[in-house]
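Many introductory courses stop at the sequence. We go one step further.
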Amino acid sequence: MTLAILGGGSWGTALAVVLAPRFASIRLWVFEEDLAARMTASRENDIYLPATRLPDNVHVVADLSAVMDGARILLCVVPSKHARGLYERIVPQLDPSVIFVSATKGFENGGVENGTPLRMSQVLSEVAQHQTRIAVLSGPTFAREVAQGEPAALVIASSDAEVASTVQAAFSGPTFRLYTNSDVIGVEVGGALKNVIAIAAGVVQGLGLGNNTQAALITRGLAEITRLAVAMGAQPMTLAGLAGLGDLVLTCSGELSRNRRVGIELARGKTLAEITASTPMIAEGVETCRAAVALGARYGVDLPIIERMAAVLHHGESPRQAVRDLMERSLKGE
């Protein structure tokens, strides 16, 4: 079987490495032609995942049409802001039997202005007019650790049980274990919103606050994520699993977390513009924060931590004042 991976960032590259033993051939599409050429020559992604060798059966391409030729599974790992444009380019070329797996954790930011941010699977369904077999891959993973062969557990979610089982069997290996789930909404919402809470966790770290504060933040952050996800149609238990609590804990506490790093730098006095200009990596939580606030308003869900992060990221509130605002809210039951 041939696997096509769209997106040559750190996660797309790591997935190519860990899934290489499971497929006869993997085609990895990289948007930047110069990077694709270097990766072909050096067998290394020197920007997003340096010092990790690409297996011999991973073929790096910059031609979008070529990457999909003969692939039975299409794994999309592009930033959310580029998703719709990419979907519109590839959907007309898709065979109806191809399984499309989304590994993007975020919302369509373009919908925020209309108050209707969309999950990635919703965007794909809209573009494909509901004619594509769709699954969502999420869970607590850092790309570098996955590429190094450290054991990881993830969730593959689809409304079609056969699709989820097919991807589970194709992807699972000695260090990469997938669990199936039918709750696409819960898996996508959990994977997206944890990035916003992770920025808050970075703020806590950057301000020099301790473990008590961090534990409270993660716990109350999970409560916020669960409230919104359930209001959107998710099952509560999904948010207690790998795509919810698991991913939240990792992203809030791990040193490799991009979103946590954004919060640390904000708390140390850097501006958002300075932080984003300093790295080619994308912290999805920055724009997801806008979408989450819009979704909270639409569904009538209270999101105090997320709203304060929006104030810090996009309205100039100081991180220390945001913490104070959260602690001085009106008292209530848990």
